Amino acid sequence: MTLEQLASTRKRARRLGDLLRPIWRLLQKPWLCCLLLIAAGSMAHVPALQGPFLWDDTYLALTNPFIKSPLLIFESFRHYLFLDSYSLHYRPVQNISYMPDYFLWGDNPFGFHLSNVFWHVAAGTMLFLLLRRLLAELPRTQLCSNRSQFIALLIALLWVVHPVHSAAVDYVSGRADSLAFFFAAAAWLTFLCARRSSSACRRTFIYAISFLLGLLALCSRETGILWLILFLVWQLFVNPQMNRRAKLIIVAGCLTLTLAYIGLRHLPSPRSQVLSAAGWPAATRAVLMLRALGDYGRLMVFPSNLHMERTVFNPAALRDSSMWESNSGVEYLSIAGLGFLAILIFGLLRKETGRELRILGAVWFLVAYVPVSNLINLNATVAEHWLYLPSVGFLIFLAGCALALPQRLDRWVLPLVGAFIIGLSVRSYDRSSDWANSERFFRQTLAAGGSSGRAATNLALVYSRRGEYARAEELLRHVLQISPDDPIARNNLADALRHLGRNAEAENILIATSKAREQIAKDYPRTWVIAANLARLRHAQKNDSAACVILDKARRQDPDVWELVSYEGELLRENKGPGAAQQLVEDFARRNWWHYGAALALGRIYAEKGQVTEAIEALTRASRLDLHEVEALNLLAQIRLRQHRFQDAYLAQRRATDRQPDAPRQYVLLSDILQKIGRPGEAHDALAQVKRLQDAARENGSLIN
After folding, report:
1. How many CB atoms lie within 10 A of CB 251?
2. Extents of the domains making up the chain
3. Cα–Cα distance, 72 to 95 (Å, whole number)
4. Counting runs of H as helices and runs of E as strands, what totals does the chain give?
5. What is the mean pLDDT of the chain?
């Protein structure tokens, strides 16, 4: 290179430095870094905002009784996340987080998706604020506060836009990961703030807030305990300012927090869990651990094949050694896992700059990875959302590796990281689009390798809802070739056959499945659906006595399934009068005071029997258990009208119109009440509102009732 070329190169470098200097100064402002994280994380998940409820969302965000009223906040702590499941997920905070969504948006999935994005970017912001403090305090790294903040920003940016987190953000039911992450990081940050406080009273108060945030993290998702382990490792082995007495106090505080959480977990009624993978040999678990590690490492670097229902092997096949050869196609993942471990060890042994950062990242990753590594029995071998916490350690380790690069490569690091962030954002945006349409989501899941019966069954259900019953039948028969005992697939197949006019075939499927219900129930929850549909078939055949026998038998096996109680009670009421159904509904409502449907049904029965006082009490309770339902309020208004208590009727119906301001029928009843209390002008206005709503509905192509 000539002197002129060298001078020109240096001049261009100085010019570039002059351009980047203002950006560097801006990135030294924490609030601006937080805004950047919020913007990047939000834009990456925009497509999913228009998506429907998928999979477990149907229960958690639609039919979940514990999200319908703030009166049920404390009741949420007395139940597992899923009422009708073998799952032992104890996540009351996740249920509570859906309450404001339901209050503001009702059944509109947009609001739920919006909250998911909010919790994710809030977790990313907490990660940045936490890392900038931890990296600055990390011994022997020689990182100034500005440099540690910049590294923390890059790690948080990579984390918040990474598409591997799609299942935790774009899936409404995946919110537990973000909640646990947010509250745990906030608890750690609050602890650091308390440590710096000069006032003893203020410090104690902030410590109490940190304790509460930690408990919220544990009650959001079980991974909260991993945050507790990471916190203890930092305080006991890394923090140079911590004396022995302080460490003992911290250990005692963490133990108290754990005991408080264990105490809360004992509030729900005991539930048995099916352990289908019990008895795996150690060699099997070790191989699956390496395969999972290889899969996760590949997804972090090159997230090209993202889908739900991931697996690195069919666990049941491992019980037979003859099945190994047929699954050798995934053995490259074991090699990748060994390579990943080798890189970790090599990075830890090298003494170049950034070693402390690499140690922190490796410890963080391993602490968060081991519980999901297949060494412990879980309901899957791998899952993308399980990387939500371990991925932080992976990125910290990469940052430590970048610090060890030769100086001559420094100028390439930032452009490469920037390009990687942009690439991940684009991939995340594309992956988020998969969640915007239910058919696309399930088809993509199956095409990408998520060949579970659950995905195929849900796709068949999409076809059935569109009236494409022949396509649904074909898909469901394929599912049953793989899992012959799957009760949900059998149920949906029977429904498809019934719509295709093959009633006898549908009935035979339901009868055969119902007879094997006790055996199937050991592996599948919700087998009561088969009994309910068989009872509906008998009802359609005008054989209500047989339907009641089927429902009664199923209800004795699953006494707290409202769908069974409700249907049997309705059949009894139609055939023998409300008195025949009263005891059945009363027993359920007494055991489940929080259930809106039970309180409403009980109020209706009391009203039909002329027990007005009891009806009003039951309906008033029902109206408080669901902030958007109006049936209880409509019945209350009608009862008050018959009592000539017009003002009470008006107040009840006014609440109903406030809850459903776009429903014409609410204003029809309101107009009738206003006429009776001598307010004809307002009654006329109410009828005019009915006409306006009906005209608007016609313009939109549908008539709202």
Report:
1. 13
2. 32-271+283-318+329-432, 457-554
3. 10
4. 32, 0
5. 86
Q: CA-CA distance, 493 to 488, in Å (whole number)?
A: 8
Residues in the chain with pLDDT values less than 50: 1, 5-6, 9-10, 12-13, 15-20, 275-278, 315-328, 703-705
Whether 99 contacts 70, CB under 8 Å: yes
Task: Report the largest interatomic distance among the alpha carbons of the chain, rounded to a whole angstrom.
Answer: 104
Residues 6 or more apart whose CB falls under 8 angstroms from that of 476 comprise 456, 457, 460, 489, 492, 493, 496
Give the span between the Cα atoms of 654 and 513, in whole angstroms.
48
Burial of 2 (0-12, 13-18, 19+ CB in 10 A): exposed
Q: b vs e for 505-520, b when ≥16 Cβ sit within 10 Å of the residue's Cβ? A: ebbebbeebbeebeeb
289 vs 374: CA distance, rounded Å: 5
pLDDT of the residue at 332: 81
Distance CA 702, CA 700 (A): 6
CA-to-CA separations, 201 to 138, 189, 211, 329, in angstroms, rounded:
28, 18, 15, 62
Nearest-CA neighbor of 344 among 328, 324, 364?
364
Asked whether the whole model's pTM tops 0.85, one would answer yes
CATH classification (class only), 457-554: mainly alpha
| Residue-level pLDDT at 374 | 86
| Residue 512 to residue 394: CA distance in whole angstroms | 50
